[in-house]
Write a structure and sequence with these properties.
Helix content is 81%, strand content 0%. With 180 residues, the protein is an all-alpha fold. Helix 1 packs antiparallel against helix 2, helix 2 runs antiparallel to helix 3 and helix 4 runs antiparallel to helix 5. It is globular, with a radius of gyration of 17 Å.
């Protein structure tokens, strides 16, 4: 996209456009997370990151993951878990980019259902990865009790992911794929 009255090369405009998209989507994830902070582990961040990874690519998904966690944790509280949250979302974004994105077909209901199930799985995976990172804090002996105590919250995260994916995917994918 180039404007006749604009002297910047096309790639600089594309970079500015991409940065602004990542910023806006990060803000959307932060607002969603803060708005639902009262409900443990139920927030749209995971679904938004999955949709961004599927439509825009793995790098953009990871950027939104890092920014949304850092920005929301400024208000919700920073700590060692912040790095674990970032690592969890980066791993999930990588797995999504490598194994799910090649099969992603927007507007195909069977595909949407399959990826919604995967979104639920990522809620469980997120909790498992967080538990692995917490081993440094609590010790290896505490891993299984810590992880098992978190399963009800991981199930809430999984259910939230499925719901938010079904609600947000048709809207965000249409916008993001049109603007690509």
């Amino acid at each position: 996209m180039s404007f006749p009255h604009h002297s910047k090369p096309n790639n600089e405009l594309s970079l500015a456009y991409r940065i602004s998209r990542v910023g806006i989507l990060s803000a959307l994830a932060v607002v969603g997370r803060l708005a639902l902070a009262i409900i443990p582990n139920v927030q749209p961040v995971s679904a938004i990151i999955l949709i961004i990874t599927l439509t825009m690519g793995t790098v953009d998904g990871m950027l939104v993951a890092v920014l949304s966690i850092l920005l929301s944790n400024i208000l919700l509280g920073m700590g060692p878990w912040t790095l674990a949250q970032i690592a969890s979302y980066v791993i999930i974004s990588l797995l999504t980019g490598w194994f799910v994105r090649p099969f992603y077909r927007p507007n195909v209901m069977v595909n949407r259902i399959a990826i919604a199930v995967y979104a639920g799985f990522t809620g469980l995976l997120y909790g498992f990865i967080i538990s692995i990172f917490m081993v440094k804090m609590f010790g290896v002996v505490a891993f299984w009790p810590y992880y098992l105590r978190g399963i009800p919250f991981d199930l809430m995260h999984a259910g939230g992911n499925i719901t938010f994916y079904f609600v947000l995917e048709p809207i965000l994918s249409r916008i993001l794929l049109r603007q690509k």
